[in-house]
Fold each of these.
Amino acid sequence: MSTVAGHTPGADAAAPDRRGGWLWWQWVRIGCAAGRNGTGGRLGFWARCAASAAVAVVALAAVATIATYDGRAARNQARGPVITERQQDAQALWREGFDSVGKVAHSVVYLRPLKPGAQPPPGLTRWPAPGEVMLSPELVRAGRHEGITSRYGHYAGMIGRSGLVSPSERLAYVGPSHAPDARERESWSYARGFGQSYPMGESLYTRPLTHALLALGVLTGVPALALLVVAARAGSGGRRRGPSSAPGGPRWHRAALRIGEAVRPTAAGTALAVLPMLGAMTTDLRMPPTGYLLNSGDLRSAWPMVLAALVLSFTVTLVAVAVPGPAGRGAVTGRRSSAATVPRWRPAGCGLGLAAVVFSQYLVGAAGLCTFIGGTVVMWALLPSAATVASRALGAKLAAHGLRTGRPGRLIGGRWTVAHPGIVVRPAVALIIGLGLVCQLQIANSDVGEKAAAARATQARIGDGVLNVQSRDLPPSAIEALSGSLPAGTHVLGLTMDLDQQGALLQGSCRTVRTLGLGCPATPRAVTGGDLRVTEIRDWYGPGLRVQAAPSGLRLDRLRGSLLVISDGTARRAAVERAAYALAPAVNVEAPGETWLVGAVTKTRLNNWVLLFGSLGLALLLLAGGFSAATEFARGRHTLVPLADPAGGHTVLRAAAGWHLAFPLLVSTMIAVVVTAWHAGFLTAVLGAGTYSWWLLAAALCGGGLMAAAVTVLGGRSAIRAAQRGRPADG
């Protein structure tokens, strides 16, 4: 087969690919130049910068969460005791107890080596000597005002980072003051070393990784994606008049141009997101308001995932910008009204949802909760339609008032609000749903139950006037020693639970019993009087409480007995704890019902994470609402150019921007805050308990005001620039 001179088979097929790649790169370069020259629009630049930063922050937060969980699991595996039943193989005696500081629980681990040369657990350079204690740095910091450094014995140093699942873990390693005898060893475990996963310390209260990622994704990730969608459409007005929008222009040309325009703001936003991660990789960063310390070593070890997350977030942002949704004709010309007729049944259905929420407080138990949830779903689903009707009504009133008073800015702003109610609807709906989710999660996590509420009330009434000291290793000699080592103004009573199923028995010396106003009964008798402390003891340890003056020293049943330390309220609790821990290991010192309070605090501390993720998400929703409003105003601002001079110069442009942007945004923010507070109030009424953060509502209100002011200033300046040029301007 002959060939044409200078031509080889397959060259025609290869040339289009090379030309296509070259053209694609040329369109990207044109887009980059347009971005540098500002023809892509300042609004689009800042919107994409904010969106890329938000997406990158969420991606890096997910990486930090995964890296933190991996590091915690590795350190928990390394320090866990390897329990054995063969005493001859054991290297140490091991026992775990629990205590609390500020109603926050922590583990107290008792260690005693059995063989010379045995290796201590990770984080310790040596075994704690008898009577010594080694504490984690966070426990020292949090418990200093409660005397934690002297509670368990002589403070001998801090636990190293390798022995803590996180820098913020509260943990104590204690060397018992005396070797446990044969009877006491029943409560100890034999460990032949360390290196097995064991639930202890902070790992006892850790939520699964999937829960943390789900909370991050729902409360922060979804708002970040909403901001990305808004940013992808911001500043598109200029592009519709560009060469890539000419009839017949290939779609990939337009995509390449958009990618070129978005490269600089996307790179800038991604770089901004790296700064907090670099700080967290350099030093342990405390996360407000949770107080949790991120382990910088975990984040440094995850640097490949950090790079991958940055590349992925950068790519996702560029793809979102390159493939925007179709822009309607009225988006630029302003001739198409987005306020289409709303079916009447939708606002009516929203009203029915509100009625169901109100009615739910009169129902009991599951019926009330189901009614509340159903009404909430209906209300949120139909809220955009109701908000559209309300927005049009607001705009009509503004326009009528402007016409009546001869204020063109108010007239124009009101009519634009009627034609474009989305400026009010989108931020209002997003804030109501976002704030509602955060507040409802807070209420659910703060519902501590009746027992915890009763314990809180008891503590408010008597403080530390009654303390329960309980241990399986309290022989009569220890009880006598405790009585002699307590500060002045305190007395010791023995409490034996359900003795012969006749009720709890309270025993003490005649003097101590008389101190409580119970006389001096030689035989057990029912408690019928006494002071406020006796009332609280009876409420917590059984209505069948009986009292008896002990004829001799107190003797308690090891399994059912405990000691009650009674004081007049002047004795420090730290002194009682120090005296108790000096006598026996794993002593439990607590006020009546304190166990419920500790559990409640553990549950409510989750609200700090809800507040962290939710606050970031709400800030992103506010940004999305602001950029959305500014974008819609920018696309139609050229319609104000003919009105600038006849209506009073630039003043009318500023006024129109204010009444069309600032006023509706402020109104929508206030409505969102009021509706959220009202809605949350009904949930607390249905549950009968729970609280939410008023500071969050106040912050949302202030954030909405700042957003409205910023958007109005930018919108007014944009309209003035368009009027000065006398032609449609870029978004």
Amino acid sequence: MLVKNVRLSRKLISRPFSQTLNPGVIDGVSSEWDNALPYSSIPGPKALPLVGNTWRFLPYVGGFQIEHIDQLCKQLHQKYGKIVKMEGLLGRPDMLFLFDPDLIQRVFKQEDNLPYRPSMPSLTYYKHKHKKEIFGEDGGVIAVHGEEWQKFRSKVNQIMLHASAAHQYIDTINEAGNNFIERIEFLKDDKEEVPGDFLNEIHKWSLESLARVALDIKLNCLAENPKKHTQELIDAVNTFFMGVPILELKNPMWRIVSTPLFKKYIKALDTIYELCNIHIEDAMRNPSSSTDENCSVLQKVLRNNNPKTAKNLALDLFLVGIDTTSNAVASILYQLAQHQDVQEKLYKHLVSSKITANSDITIDFLNKSGYLKYCIKETMRMFPVVIGNGRCTTNNTVIGGYQVPKGVQVIFQHYVISNLDEYFPRSSEFLPERWSDPKGKTHNFASLPFGHGRRMCLGKRFADMEMQVVISKVIANYKISYNYPPLDYHIHPMYTPNGPLKFKFERRKPKNDS
């Protein structure tokens, strides 16, 4: 049985893809291909016999730390240049890192209707083997590719990506923001500081917001007595994200034997799915009587599809929507605390827009809130919560003048690119104003925190609105400071400040905004 499972995993990883990065290449034959340098000449860390490059991620002997992949990627760029090959990874295809937005733009422009993202074998195993009877052909949007992905995405695209889908939740998001402010007041000590584990409170805010969209339920995550399973759900999502880089790079032995971490990882995914299932079953027993135009996202999905679609969508939204948004908010708050001049300018922007401590944030304000968006974009430029994304080659193709065979994972390393002066002058400085000129010199593919193209983040509109609302409310209520040594960033499991987030929240004195 174990050998069979390993063979299945390998089959899922190596199965043919449908994306064509270079339509001019047919069976590896074209003038461009013939004139390109061979794949073997792409620079990168040398793979050793038998162990390849996997040994570099081992503790003590390897030197490549998953927690600091940001620094590793910087080193790869500095040592090898704008295109770097990482081959010989146990159980994984080769990885090709791109540090050039022009090359990234070319890959995006040439992708077809069924683009393939780099595989996540551990999640692929969960969906296509461990829970095959549940996911089947309704596998969701993560770790799903080809026609199966297209079929599922077509069921939910219009519901999730239409502007009105997010807008109808503005009252809910405002309510979650108000609850967050109340939670800050409850947590503050006599120095007006919150505890060091404040990130977990931000997770609760993110979960509360997302649960209303994905499950039609108010969890009361920020109350003193939240609903049952709230922390269990947060912990399960964290376990999932913490497990992915270890299982995929550092310790891929789960393919041969079920390791303790892999068992914990599978249990976490089971927990998320089971809790989503409970709440969606409740929603099915109490269907909304509202018209399609006014009913919730969940009810729209249930009306137009089978319940499995709603359940599998909910799982994917929880996997990508809690940690990413909450870590982004933590990073934005930390940067505003570190840059008091920017924070004060943002506060004045809110005051001039008639946003007070007790204001509800409106769609009209969000449509006009330029400086607020600049602060978020600048944080995501310097410290993107997901430091890179990518695509998989499905045919022999030419990238950067090199022959790249079918089956290679092409990684777009946006973190490194967006912190280079070549693309962002004075890149080490936190300058939200740089985003104020839409005709500026910023390369469109140098900073892509939500991805790009047909596989762009499905929940982008919701995440944008959630971040803008909660940051507006926090800054309208408080002056934030951080009175401890500066924090480094690390992967844990998102790219986030490494240390206790003991923010000081000082209540602002109302200004005369007449």
Amino acid sequence: MSGICGWLGSNHSAIENQQTIEHMIRQLSRFDGHPAHTAIRGNAALSVTAKTSHAHLYENDGLLVGIWGRIKSRDTHFQAAIDAKGMAMALADQWRQKNKLSFADLAGEFVCCIIDSHTGETALAIDPLGTHVLYYQLLRDGLLFSTSADALLTHPQASSEINPQGLFNYLYFHMIPGPDTIYSAQKRLLPGEYLLYRSGHVETSHYQKIEFHEDIKRPFPELQQEFLSLLRKNVSEAIQDQKAGAFLSGGTDSSTLAGILTEVTGEPAKTYSIGFEATGYDEMHYARIAARHFSTDHHEYYVTPDDVVETIPLIASVFDQPFGNASALPAYYCARMARNDGLDLLLGGDGGDELFGGNVRYAKQYIFSLYDKIPAPLRNYLLSPLFLSLPPDTGPKLLRKARSYISQASIPMPHRMETYNLLMHYGFDTVFSPELLDKMDATQPGRMIEQTYQAASGARSLINRMLAFDWKFTLADNDFPKVVQSCHLAGMEVAFPFANDEMLAFSLALAPDQKLKGTQLRYFFKQALRGFLPDEIITKQKQGFGLPFGVWLQTHKPLRDIASDSLNDLKSRHIIRNDFIDKLLDQHLHEHASYHGTMVWLLMMLEYWFKQHNLSKK
């Protein structure tokens, strides 16, 4: 698990510091075995553990600079210095001249750290879209940080006290959104954020302002040419001299990258797809269409229920926090195939939906938003009172649909998106133990959602506000960790050509109806790729990469047994009500396996996370 770690402060001997950093390094390298580049000076330590192309360390006159990944700059002078001196030395020089203003010029996919052991100042930063995570904890006399919470916990001053709010947020969001973590003492940086530590105080701020420009009008041919050029450039920069392949789900993003990779390298791209023997979950047909169209060197694997049983403990072990996205498992099997083929890097299509308007809920929320176009007096004094007074499950089908539509459309955004929330469907009091409810704030997720949704600078349109919302909750908090950690488990690096600062800037300047035209998802994206992608890929319905866990629970006894055992073990942690667990297993699963199977997966992965991280049941 490549990454970065270190600290400023903690008065220990040189031998103790060396032993501590070695413990942290072992956690970072436990899955891929990459070498560590380490510097220790007095009460400061910094290590970057990664393959040579992603590890950058500089030390001079008490200044330590470490970078994991690749930093670029839009400033031509800074970029020239990077090219001439290397990333870490160039950033060190920039820091000496501009201090925290240095971060405004950064781009790429990276985590970086600067420690001045003379002044006691430390700075941390991650890339604008948050493709990687960086945890930190204040110490009695300094700052501790790492891209791995597990590595951070090996430090003698680290605290492993569980945050009750993190447990609640995990079941609400199916992950724990930043800046909070599962540990009370730990925080993590948000996308595009820097941290500055001075004299026991921490300052965090965003080093770049992401702003939508909704009124720019440019000719389609010009936009199309720039878009395709950016794709080729991003793929070329990502792969460099590495042996690279691509995930291929059969969707527009992965298919596009497979085609561009073939074009850029001049040889058939190695592509990797996962299938499931379950109706409604298998997209292998579309992956094969794309593979044939681009003549890729295609590899397939069908995940079985036995694979799930075998892999669940591994998946739980690689994540620093409880993580409930079951798509991590198929992502791991793709990465494992690529690793066995001798590849160094996989390209992931994550970010395409969130930059260009590809998620189904964008169209659904557009339909609900049409209700607001009805004059307010008619809505507020006639339609809403009339339809919402009707019983929800009685009357003709059309009348029930109208009531359901108005009921949801009347909820303001962004909270309207939470009407599908699984935890809210059950009810907090039904799920959580009284002990946990007393320690957490059930209103916190709503405030977090509202704050993120309203913070989108320059976004007047529904689609752009939803995109900015998803950059945090869908990409930085969910999809990027899912793919990065799954690939780490397989010993594979991953890059995201859509999650690029230049591609982000391109998306910010597209008109809203070029992303969502009525209910047509990613309108510009699909028009720009007509003739490049197969028509079947462009017109296919959005499906996703879901695991048929709930369906398999009904037919596969070993899977059902480990789910039941883990949920029963979870009872002793006093997080979830025992009667809810019993009802979930004995009744709900038989009523709707795929729907309630999601909650079984979430609770099972929570218990496995505790076990894999050797956390007690206190």
